[in-house]
Amino acid sequence: MRAMLNLYNTLTRRRDAFEPLEPGIVKLYTCGPTVYNVAHLGNFRAYIFEDILRRTLEYRGYRVVQVMNLTDVDDKTIRGAIAAGISLDAFTQQFKDAFFEDLKTLRIKPAEHYPAATAHIPDMIALIERLIERNHAYVADDDSVYFNIASYPAYGRLARLDLSSLQPGTRVAHDEYAKDNVADFALWKAWDADDGDVAWDSPWGRGRPGWHIECSAMCMRYLGETFDIHTGGIDNIFPHHEDEIAQSEAATGKPLARYWLHCAHLIIDGQKMSKSLGNFHTLRDIVAMGFRGREIRYLLASAHYRQTLNFTFDALHAVRSALDRIDTFRQRLQQVAGGITVSQETALPDWAQNTAAKFDQAICDDLNTAAAYGALFETIHEGNRLMDGGRVSDRDAAAVLTMFDRWDRVLAIMTPDADATTVNGAEDPVIAGLLEQRQAARQGKNFKESDRIRDLLRDKGWIVRDTPAGQELKRAHITSDRHSLDGSIACAQ
Ligand code: AMP
Ligand code: ZN
């Protein structure tokens, strides 16, 4: 029997069985980077956890609509632009570009939407107006607008705050503050000299939004007033997500997200890896040392996402031998399979059925990647033992290879990096994502959607065919200035 997908929900503090609001579709909001610097490995631990969440949902047959915001206006981005002597847009653009390159290096699937805060100021203003109308927000003497936490009795539910000693009316203007500083927080900050030339007009005068309202406005704009899953690192629980819930739910009267997932930190020398502590490694630094994106991805997913993970170079070196074992095993299976390929439905040999069930259980048990790696190495151990004795048939080897491909739709660690740039379209995360969406659409008998994705792939230069073994992808050859509609005819020319 197929394992049920359970996810640990910070809201309920337990593993909840996952069911989306709308059958077959999962709406997912993942808090994105503040683009004032290149992201570091700690940030990527969060984005890889979210990628594995997304991939697991797709593995389970759901279509995922993921939104990841880009925080391109806040205290830190403004400070950085002023120090660099360039416009806020020019300053943040370079880090947005770097971020998207890094996502590719780490095989993180692209989200459907990457809204930038600066492109959604009217949505934020409208939300603040709604909060003022409903008496959940007020304009202070300096023309900044604050959320009145006393007006919202559920405040503190996510972070489990004890508000009994709270002084009503105390205010905090900064985006980041600690639990012992719970107070009315800024939704709109009136312009001051620290903001340089960054300001927008609003009903309360010139100013800019607070960080928390940015996410509330953007998640509801793209996913609706109530959606399925909202995620971030544990440092986002308070104040960011607590404030997001308060603003959104006070404005709509509806729950914002049904499942809240948070990953534990990547630490180094006993402390959280963070820009402010200066104890961070960027992905680029590590790649410049000769490590591959695949190795870093493997390491960052090697512990369960709710366990603190300690970064060391020894651990990164150890990943090499783990990946070598995987590569060698797959090559050995390929030799035994001798060119045979089989479909997903082909029965697995007995020795792999057991680990197949373990993998499914692990990944569906709150995304337990550590146990999923365990199932992978158990398969390798057993498979090697049997191959040593010549006891694996070509068909069995092919079936295990197919199973590994299926697992790799979640893990994305099995193909060596050099292959990632070949013409095999499935190695391109965008194309692979479209193929998976199309497969999910076909499984759900949504042929209109599957045809739409087929046309989209064709526009991107790929032809997809449905064969008994599944979808088959071919490069559409470019004839004159347009894609030919049939790769095989073009090949024959
Ligand atoms: P920021 O750019 O600081 O807003 O952070 C972006 C994301 O990275 C957020 O979800 C943070 O919770 C997460 N994050 C930051 N540092 C770490 C860390 N050391 N380990 C895991 N996640 C982190
Ligand atoms: Zn956010």
Report on this structure:
With 493 residues, the protein is of the alpha/beta class. The protein has a domain at 6-268: HUPs (Rossmann fold). 44% of the residues lie in helices and 15% in strands. Strands 5, 6, 7, 8 and 9 form a five-stranded mixed beta sheet that branches. A four-stranded parallel beta sheet has the order 4-3-10-11, with helices on both faces. It has a three-stranded mixed beta sheet with strand order 13-12-14, covered by helices on one side. A hairpin with a 2-residue loop joins strand 15 (462-467) and strand 16. The longest helix is centred in the middle third of the chain and has 25 residues, at 313-337. The protein starts with 5 loop residues before the first strand and ends with a helix. Mean pLDDT is 91; it is low at 419-425 and 477-493. The chain binds adenosine monophosphate and zinc ion. Zinc ion (ZN) binds next to loops. Zinc ion (ZN) binds at residues 31, 215, 240.
Q: Estimate the strand proportion.
A: 15-25%
Euclidean distance between termini CA atoms: 49 Å
* Biggest sheet statistics: 5 strands, mixed
What general outline do the C-alpha atoms trace? elongated
CATH topology title of the domain at 6-268: Rossmann fold
Low-confidence segments? 419-425, 477-493
Rg, rounded, reads: 25 Å
**Unique bound compounds:** adenosine monophosphate, zinc ion
Please state the oligomeric state of the protein chains shown: single chain
Averaged pLDDT, please?
A: 91
Structural class: alpha/beta
CATH architecture of the domain at 6-268: 3-Layer(aba) Sandwich
Helical amount among residues, as a percent range?
40-55%
**How many helical elements?**
15
CATH superfamily caption of the domain at 6-268: HUPs
CATH top level assignment of the domain at 6-268: Alpha Beta
What is the tally of beta strands? 18
